[in-house]
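help with this:

***
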Amino acid sequence: MAKHRLERVNELLRRELGDLLQRELHFDAPLVTVQQVDVTPDLKNAHVYMSVFGTEKQRKGVLSQLYTRRPHLQFLLSRRVTMKHTPQLHFKLDEGIERGTRIINLMDELHLLPATEAPIIDGEGAPIHPPLL
């Protein structure tokens, strides 16, 4: 039962933080999203995984801005979510999407040349061509 409660709290905090960030903060990066929130079982800390599309400088700027505005965000969150204690927010970059994109690009590079089947050789060493349909 406690597991389901944590999942509900995680989802609620993710939604509310996403809404707060959209309304309260303006970033230089083109796209900033809350990917996931993991609350500790004692509900005192919340690890917020952020996805930031942009340059490395923009990513660092987003994290810096989030940590600077963290007390204000926690205050606003406490007004929107009724909990005994509002968890302390710890922002982290979620690089899963970037890693996935890099892996897909590497896989595409491996398949640049079209795959050809090895020719079938008859007993005399001449290739046998399959019939055309």
Notes: The first strand starts at residue 31 and ends at 39. The longest helix spans residues 2-24.
